[in-house]
Amino acid sequence: MNELTTVKINPPYLILIGSEDDATYAKTAFGIVQWRPELVAGQFRFPGCTVDLGVPDMSIEDAAAAGVRSLLIGVAPVGGSVPDTWWAVMEAAARAGLDVVCGLHVKLTDQPGIVAAAESSGARLVDVRVPPPNLPVGNGRKRSGRRVLMVGTDCAIGKKYTALALHQAMQEAGMKATFRATGQTGIMIASQGIPIDSVVADFISGAAELLSPDNDPDHWDVVEGQGSLFHPGYSGVSLGLLHGSQPDAFVVCHDATRTRVAGWEHFSLPSLTECIELHVAAGRRTNPDIQCVGVSVNTSQVDAAERENCLQRFADETGLPCVDPLIDGCAPIVERINQQFPEKT
């Protein structure tokens, strides 16, 4: 990947939790610890904070002495604003030479105090939701290597977790694989990537091409998906990512209990068959050989006694392996990939 055109985050991390008392708003922090524990050195919490990531508490001074390279804002407060008490911590980190990384809507580079602190030490201020400059328009040319893209029947349906679980399963199977992050939390987990949903529409496919460049013939890029082709508000980012990724394979992500588009309840969700057919039809524009290799199903709200029957119904409908990646893992999907692409794996 061209590092000049992607967001890059330097590990190890100190994760700022502040005084958060609701784990729901610390999903970014928990996701990083779950999927990339080796990147996390510790957490910074204010006295009385009840959220605990299960990693050591560290001061800014301790972190700097231990060789920590980045302070990450690990929570998303209501409204997306940063509490005043946090700015002093971030300025101290920048002054100590730690990069400061923010995935919120507020931009670090708009804050004079932290800008001055970073300039004094040479630390970087990384606004994850700001895409790199000079992104090209997609050219659609075939690239070497293989790609598998996560797609969804809706937004917020498990594309990131599926990609991470599939990447893990491919590595465990001895395959060459790289997780390619396209969203703020994914970028913090991978320590690099492009925030595709913040790219100007004309350049989405070009950004996706840069994110997944030429590679060895037997190497797989596991591309985190965004949005949904069926979403009335966010379909544009999904189509650009589909065309630019040129996936050889894709995995459909679905919530077993969801029937309407979340937040747009006047729209129903497509069937899995309809979802697969549309992605094949649209994806053939840049990869005529695109294939669906599996279905990832969020069964967290399904009664345990009904879970297997639920997955079997989806498998019967699609003729594909259907798994809940957080319960079953993704080995059946990896097996399907090896069956459908034997000459490259």
UniProtKB/TrEMBL annotation:
Location of the D-glutamate N-acetyltransferase-like C-terminal domain:
137-334
Recorded hits in InterPro entries, A to Z, give: DgcN-like (IPR011669), DgcN-like_C (IPR035086), DgcN-like_N (IPR035402), P-loop_NTPase (IPR027417)
Pfam families in the cross-refs: DUF1611 (PF07755), DUF1611_N (PF17396)
Q: Where are the transmembrane segments?
A: none
Q: Where is the D-glutamate N-acetyltransferase-like N-terminal domain?
A: 48-131
**What is the designated name of this protein?**
DUF1611 domain-containing protein
Lineage, please?
Bacteria, Pseudomonadati, Pseudomonadota, Gammaproteobacteria, Chromatiales
